[in-house]
Specification:
This protein is α/β, with parallel strands linked by helices and about 290 residues long. The protein is globular, with a radius of gyration of 18 Å. The longest helix has 15 residues.
């Protein structure tokens, strides 16, 4: 069982479903609404745990009505929350509009995530003891940099999902062992990804492509499913990938593509993340 630490974000997602997403200035009738705990960090932590890893979460919630639910969703999934602190002000929130095809539009307000500006000694010890550190870019970059540098110094594999896209200094890329990007992110970062030994590019329904340290490309086909909501599918892919990275890239990619596909078959991010048993059953069906 891999030991993973996620240093990242946790949000309450406000999910509205519509037949067609509105154009600028247009008002449309919604078909449904739900409050669903999410955030890229939280989603990836839960996905890694459900895929079979031991997971600890380093992050922050606010002093508001969402805090208990956000902490609870991690605890109920079996993710360690000893390093999840409470800070003044609101928790992070994301407003998500999902249309009839399962595509979405998302607006994120950082809240407590934006105040995750320091790592204490206990956070750093948790990172040093892990097999894999997973980071995203929904928390301050200085915190990501500190976490990655500490992981590199202690032999912990650094897996970065550089989303939302922002310019990153070369010092960050030099500490990254595995980068997980979608096609748009791969195009945006371009040559900046060259120093990263392992680069995985998600291809939506088509699966994923992996570039190894020698420049060789391995492709993994997607799993056909009936799509309901794509929110969190990429995070589920990344969490499952991390959970099985120690088994080799081909195995990890199979788990990741299967988990990511299954995550699109239900509404909401954390609620749709498949269990280990569900992923194994799908893998057996594929075989």
């Amino acid at each position: 069982m891999a030991r993973i630490v996620v240093v990242g974000s946790i949000n309450m997602d406000l999910v509205t479903t519509v037949a067609v997403r509105p154009e600028p200035g247009e008002t449309v009738a919604g078909e449904g609404f739900a409050l669903v705990p999410g955030g890229k960090g939280s989603n990836q932590a839960i996905a890694a745990r459900r895929a079979g890893a031991e997971v600890d979460f380093v992050g922050a919630v606010g002093a508001d009505v969402f805090a208990d639910a956000l902490r609870g969703v991690l605890s109920e999934a079996g993710v360690g929350v000893a390093r999840l602190r409470t800070v003044e002000g609101p928790s992070g929130v994301a407003t998500i509009v999902v249309d009839g095809s399962g595509e979405n539009t998302i607006v994120v307000v950082g809240g407590a995530n934006a105040r995750m500006t320091e790592l204490d000694d206990a956070d750093l010890d948790t990172i040093a003891a892990a097999d894999v550190l997973m980071c995203q870019l929904e928390i301050p970059l200085r915190t990501v940099r500190a976490a990655a540098a500490h992981a590199r110094a202690h032999g912990t594999v650094v897996m970065l999902n550089p989303s939302p896209v922002r310019e990153l200094p070369a010092a960050v890329w030099s500490d990254v062992d595995v980068a997980v990007v979608n096609e748009g992110e791969a195009a945006r970062f371009g040559a900046a990804l060259a120093p990263v030994p392992h680069v995985i590019t998600t291809l939506g329904a088509a699966g994923a492509a992996y570039r190894d340290p020698d420049g060789r490309i391995l492709t993994q086909l997607g799993v056909p499913v009936e799509v309901v909501d794509t929110t969190g599918a990429g995070d589920t892919f990344t969490g499952a990938l991390a959970a099985h990275w120690h088994e080799g890239a081909d195995t990890a990619l199979a788990w990741a593509c299967t988990a990511g596909a299954l995550a699109t078959t239900k509404l909401g991010a954390s609620a749709a993340i498949p269990t280990r048993a569900e992923i194994l059953a799908a893998l057996a069906g594929i075989a």
